[in-house]
Design brief:
alpha/beta; seven-stranded mixed sheet; disordered N terminus
Length: 177
């Protein structure tokens, strides 16, 4: 990422910007769904956010725990995870949506919507490639889960989306701000 001139913390930069612009300053809680090795969660925590990371892969979670043992790291399936809280923002970075079990995308998105507070934001970025989840299908699943598209960019730096091979989508729970 850095070699290509992109910020290694582009996802955290955008999460921070969105939470600040919607009146949620550091300290707000964020769910990093499909957190992997914790790169985004650790950076958000460094910036003062309260972060919960969820991933199915025990090896990746072990690496995440080694980086930030003070954070809450949960091994669970995004289809079934049941947290007793809601978040103002859920981030799904690192192509999470194309790595979930094919056919479960709608279930994952419905479960993520259930974990958003009213008016909460779902921010997801993933590669658009043949044989994987399309943007049209993603948007249909989001709509079925009660999520409304707010913005779409080509990068985490908010470059304009022009039907390229990567999309970052911001959906809100409910239809209005």
């Amino acid at each position: 990422m850095e070699a290509a001139g992109e910020s290694i913390h582009g996802e955290a930069d955008l999460v921070s910007l969105l939470l600040e612009s919607y009146g949620r300053m550091p300290g707000a809680s964020v769910l990093d769904a499909g957190c992997g090795t914790g790169r985004v969660a650790v950076e958000l925590h460094r910036r003062g956010f309260s972060v919960v990371g969820v991933d199915l892969d025990a090896g990746m979670l072990s690496e995440a725990r080694s980086k930030a043992p003070e954070l809450c790291w949960l091994q669970d399936d995004l289809c079934a995870v049941n947290l007793d809280c809601q978040f103002p923002l859920i981030v799904m970075a690192g192509n999470v949506m194309i790595f979930v079990e094919p056919g479960t995308e709608g279930t994952v998105l419905a479960n993520m919507a259930r974990h958003l507070e009213p008016g909460g934001l779902l921010l997801a970025g993933f590669q658009l490639c043949q044989g994987h989840l399309s943007l049209g299908d993603y948007d249909r699943h989001c709509t079925a889960a009660g999520l409304t598209l707010e913005e779409r960019w080509a990068t985490w730096s908010q470059d304009a989306f022009r039907n390229g091979n990567y999309a970052v989508s911001l959906h809100r729970l409910g239809s209005t701000r």
